[in-house]
Amino acid sequence: MLTVADLQGSSKQRNRERTMRVVVQGAAVVTMVVSVLIFFVLARGAYTFLDEIDWDFAVLSDLGWFPRRSRFDLRTILVGSVVMGGVAMVVAVPFGLGAAIYLSEYAPARVRKVVKPVIEVLAGVPSVIVGYFVVRFIAPEFVSKIFDPTHDRNMLAAGVGIGILVIPIMASVSEDALRSVPNSLREASYGIGARKINTVLRIVLPAAVSGLVAAFIIAISRAIGETMVAVMAGGFDGSGPYSGAWPTNPGLTMTTAMTNAVGGTDQDVGGAPFQVLFFVGLILFTITLLLNVIGDRFVNRIRQQY
Predict the structure, then answer these.
(1) pLDDT in tens, 108-158
(2) Which of 92, 103, 113, 225 is the most exposed place for a label (fewest CB within 10 A)?
(3) Cα–Cα distance for residue pair 160/85, rounded to 1 Å
């Protein structure tokens, strides 16, 4: 006859499970503490920055981002971030989702085993390599010849480069979401006479929408946080005037502005030109946090259990 002690297993196994639970809980606590500390440091630096500047003149009335001259036009970096991020998602979503659909629904198993690891490896390509590719090929051979911009380096070229970096992430996460859809749903669709394309569009994609939304949130967070491609191909080296929202104009992103704030001697002497690093970082942190919170709530609302 089995007893409760028999069902509990050996003491060595229970101790091992207890140790692993403590380790995992500790990792979760450390993650939360680090996030809180990051927010605290950014908030403290942002408060110092706001206390040192004339908000109406330096932030709201200027028409350019020139931190070393105490000119901090937020519109310049916000518009640049939105435009480059938007162009990146226009590139990454269709190509990434298309690659995911092919790998999940159409590719033979032998092809999938080769292509999927290649896509995941592409996600680890250093962004400086993509930035050089954009400057040397995409900007002169694609953007300049089709759109004839005034500047060779512009937000459109940078956005395309960022989109190339985001495609592997979008494809990999989306493919995992599509593959998690039960085959019984596909078989039921085929059983009533639906074609492959109808099954994919009307059954598989709606069933995997929660995972696809998660992939989109990860991709847009990666696009907004990209630095090197925006620095190399965006058109401005850390500072510049407000040039509008037209993609063929040069522009700045929040990450580019932060990179410029760290450089030079501003870090040594302090003051608003360096403290703005924390202010912009707080804005970027808040935007990323809101995107993840909104995406998590949306996913929880539409998620289907199988």
Answers:
(1) 888 888 888 888 887 788 888 888 898 888 888 888 888 877 777 889 999
(2) 113
(3) 9
